[in-house]
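ESCALATION

Customer reports they have been waiting on this structure for their group meeting. Please prioritize. Original submission:
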Amino acid sequence: MPDAVERWTLEVTGRVQGVGYRDLVVDVARELGVAGRVWNDPSDPRRVHVVVQGPKTTLEQFRRRIGSAHGLIAPERVQRTRTEAPDPGWADFVRVSSPR
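Update from on-call: job pushed to the front of the queue and completed.
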């Protein structure tokens, strides 16, 4: 039986702004075939927000991969802050300047 599709809100802290982290998140998401958004937290230079949706096991893999260090990128924590029903209008994963 296939996994249920979920939408997760993630908060990533560490050295994640100004080092190409959002591009990495987009690449991982597209490779795994999940949809969503990623943006910098304008009030905290050590925080990035991610909303991602896809099958639960794929989201778990996504979370593990975006939590790994790569060169200058050094996430310290990837915390899931919310789980919701998916948005059927989301088909791609993109960088945005804000959650709206």
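Sent to customer with the following note: The domain at 5-95 is CATH 3.30.70.100 (Alpha-Beta Plaits).
Escalation resolved.
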